[in-house]
Write a structure and sequence with these properties.
The complex is a heterodimer.
Chain A (H helix, E strand, L loop, with lengths): L2 H8 L14 E10 L12 H17 L9 E5 L5 H9 L5 H5 L5 E5 L4 E5 L5 E8 L3 H16 L6 E2 L3 E2 L11 E8 L1 H5 L3 H10 L2 E4 L12 E6 L7 H47 L5 H16 L10 H8 L2 H8 L5 H17 L4
Antiparallel strand pairs in A: 1-5, 1-8, 2-3, 3-4, 4-5, 6-7, 8-10, 9-10
Helix pairs in contact in A: 3-11, 8-9, 9-10, 11-12
Chain B lengths: L12 E7 L2 E7 L1 H6 L13 H9 L3 H9 L13 H7 L5 H7 L4 H7 L16 H21 L3 H20 L1
Antiparallel strand pairs in B: 1-2
Classes of the chains: A alpha+beta, B mainly alpha.
């Protein structure tokens, strides 16, 4: 398969970019945790009970096949997927590693453009997720909310007057809502302002993580900022708070980029062009270096220093150069050394096959 | 290395404590560690494994120790999860656990959710209609008090009638 065709098939909408403030915000995500009444939570439920959850969802999907608002939704059972297919879904942020590897009777409902994914039998019976490109928290919430309403017409969710939506983990109870924005903040990192900003964000009840969630590094200067509190505030308040912090970060990143250009343009240019040179020529590259170089190139594109390369290259390649994708593209299992070679090749080709 | 309690069996549990730069090492075998129970030698007796976990989850430790004192542990009758299991794993077994463990959860929620203990967000459309009515009544009652305070008696009378209507609806459900 040609690289262009592979990429066209492999990309979810969120990787194609195009949303508001896409120079800084890569994606916006809303997740709602829901559980059915009368069935124990997945960690304790029997396999039969978990199968009931999947069967119920299957039936709802069947019933509402012609629901135009949501488009075509497809239910995939984890047991019918190969481990490579599951890995690819994880790398696209559509399912969690836990659902891929450990969940019993796990399944996922996906929309055609992959902006909707509903995980079944992860930590909770349902995890409704909506993922949009750029800064579109409100749009993602509107969609997640309507999916929640649609499902609620057909099943009873565990809900308590005082505690709200009941979830397996006490950190999700109430709204069950986790809103997050993934941001590319290279200038704030370069000017060492992130160390000052991160504690302040934590004090506002928000959490900052690396690109692959809890415990992961901010590889490629990509940060995920999400709400910690789910109880005591309404969904719109939570989203507004997060949105306001994101807006401030966007503003600060833009200012930092400008300051860097003004004060040390040559140094910045040198760094960006060196990274471009390495990506365009390297024969072996580890993922950590690839992420950092891609971050530099993306910054170069945003600053107008590099032309003729699509601005979605970072969004795409951070996903496509992951182990699962590299192996899928190669059509075979690869050792880490082989992956470093394939990664370098894929990036070189991608820089050449740009269709702007 | 031998167990420092019995001096016979090999030590399998090793602890190091450092207080004001003074380092003390404790080496125990499985049997002695079990016999010593939760109170480890050289450590404050209140420092039990259970207290440590409860502390991490910020649970009421008196609730925890009451459980070991009485024969009947607090257990969710639907899914079988005990409160002790919950405090170890930090995960509920089912929706009913929330009711069974009740007010004991308050400190945990406060800690995790910045002092908040009650839901102010979305209510399920279908199953939550009763709750919606209740919330509406509460809002109108507050407005009524305000109207009375402002001596807007006509508005107050209107609100009173609306509240009566809603309460009628609620009792019919």
């Amino acid at each position: 398969m040609s690289l262009q065709r592979f990429i066209n098939q492999a990309l979810s909408d969120w990787m194609k970019g195009g949303g508001p403030d896409e120079d800084i915000v890569i994606s916006s995500r809303i997740r709602l945790a829901r559980n059915l009444t009368d069935i124990p939570f997945p960690l304790i439920a029997t396999r039969e009970q978990l199968e009931q959850v999947v069967a119920k969802m299957d039936k709802i999907l069947e019933k509402s096949k012609n629901n135009q608002a949501l488009g075509t939704l497809e239910l995939l059972r984890m047991e019918n997927l190969s481990s490579l297919e599951k890995k690819v879904l994880v790398e696209k942020h559509l399912i969690s590693p836990h659902l891929a590897e450990e969940a019993r009777a796990g399944a996922v409902i996906l929309s055609e453009n992959e902006s909707i994914s509903i995980m079944l039998n992860e930590e909770d019976h349902l995890r409704i997720q909506c993922l949009f490109p750029g800064f579109q928290l409100n749009e993602a919430w509107t969609q997640a909310n309507s999916i929640d309403d649609w499902l609620e017409m057909n099943v009873d969710f565990a809900f308590d007057e005082k505690r709200g939506y009941l979830t397996s983990c006490p950190t999700n109870v109430g709204t069950g809502l986790r809103a997050s924005v993934m941001m590319h903040l290279p200038a704030l990192v370069m000017s060492q302002q992130m160390n000052r900003i991160l504690p302040a964000i934590n004090q506002l009840g928000l959490v900052v993580r690396g690109i692959y969630g809890e415990g992961s590094d901010a590889l490629g200067n990509i940060f995920q900022i999400s709400n910690q509190i789910t109880l005591g505030r309404s969904e719109t308040e939570i989203i507004e708070d997060l949105g306001n912090v994101a807006k401030q970060l966007i503003e600060q990143e833009r200012q930092a980029r400008k300051r860097l250009l003004d004060s040390s343009r040559l140094k910045l240019e040198d760094r960006i062009y060196r990274s471009y040179g390495i990506l365009a020529n390297a024969r072996v590259i580890e993922s950590k270096e690839a992420m950092q170089r891609l971050s530099d190139v993306r910054l170069g594109i945003d600053l107008g220093l590099i032309q003729g390369v699509s601005s979605t290259i970072l969004n795409e390649l951070i996903v496509l150069t992951q182990p699962g994708f590299l192996q899928q593209y190669a059509g075979q299992m690869l050792s880490p050394d082989e992956r470093d070679i394939r990664r370098a090749k894929l990036i070189r080709e991608r820089l050449l096959t740009q269709e702007i | 290395m031998h167990c420092q309690e019995c001096g016979e069996r090999p030590a399998t549990l090793h602890f190091t404590k450092i207080i004001n730069g003074q380092k003390t090492e404790i080496h125990l075998c499985d049997v002695c560690a079990k016999e010593k129970g939760e109170a480890l030698p050289g450590l404050n007796n209140s420092f039990s494994i259970h207290n440590l976990l409860s502390g991490l989850l910020s649970f009421d430790p008196s609730g925890g120790s009451a459980e070991t004192a009485y024969a009947q542990p607090l257990r969710c009758e639907r899914c079988g999860l005990t409160y002790a299991q919950f405090s170890r794993s930090g995960r509920f077994g089912c929706a009913h656990c929330y009711r069974v463990f009740g007010d004991r959860l308050e400190p945990l929620f406060k800690k995790v959710h910045s002092g908040n203990v009650s839901h102010h967000g979305k209510i399920p459309r279908r199953s939550g209609s009763r709750l919606k009515l209740k919330r509406e009544i509460n809002v109108k009652k507050q407005k009524l008090q305000q109207a009375v305070a402002n001596e807007e008696f006509e508005r107050a009378a209107e609100l009173r009638d609306e509240i009566r209507e809603l309460e009628k609806l609620l009792s019919q459900e």
